[in-house]
Structure formats: structure tokens, C-alpha cells
Amino acid sequence: MGLCMEAAAENHKMFFVLDRVNPINAATVDGPVLVGATSFVGFHPLPLRMDDHGELARMFKAERKCDVDLRAIALENWKRDAWFDETGQPWTNPSPNLTQPHEAILYPGSGCWRAHSRSAGH
User: Fold this and answer.
1) Between 20 and 30 A from 97 (CA), which of 10, 22, 81, 103?
2) Which candidate, 21, 14, 17, places its Cα nearest to that of 72?
3) Can you identify the CATH homologous superfamily of domain 2-88?
4) CA-to-CA distance for 48 and 56, rounded, in angstroms?
5) Confidence of residue 60 (pLDDT cuts 50, 70, 90)
């Protein structure tokens, strides 16, 4: 999203962010924060678990001084502490690795494990 925002700014285009429900709620901000150089995968230093896309877009715009015409469209009738199964919405796989809502609970921990394994040379 951040790289797309930068490209939109460079090309004087509006950038729309349509927020979505976080499967494991967005009330909890948790996990390690990127330290060191950023990359395609680690675009910005932020906690592993922080997932309100409109909020992230506004943070990227401010902290990276991205001069983009940002339009963040918030969800209606959703509370940050709601879990996906409370929405009544059908599940759509956000990744081939996440085929069921309950798998999203384990995903942040598996990300930490993968990052630790790579840094430890495993």
C-alpha cells in the first residue's frame, strides 16, 4: 500500500483506501517493530499486528511525508474490538495461507517465527 501511495503521489493521482474488517480485531496493537532498513516486505517500522488500512495510510502519508491525495473510506457499523465471526460476512481468503477465519489468529505468531528463523540462519 505504501509503495502504491508513493507512486500515486509521483503521478498526481488520488489514492483510495477501502478499509476492511480485521479478522482478529483491530483493538490490539502488538508484536515486534521493524528495526533497520525498510524493504518491499517491511515498508515502514510498525508493530506486526496493526491493521486498520485507513489508519496505516494516514500514518504513511504523515510519517513518510507522502504528498498524495488520500481518500480513506472507513467501514460503517464496525467496532475495532470486533472479530470477523461477529460480522456475519462471508469469509474470503486474504491469502492462500489463510483459508479459515480461525487461522488468522495464528498468523501473527507464525510471522514472528519465520522472521526469527531467517535471522537465526535456519
Assistant:
1) 81
2) 17
3) Uncharacterised protein PF07075, DUF1343 (3.40.50.12170)
4) 12
5) very high
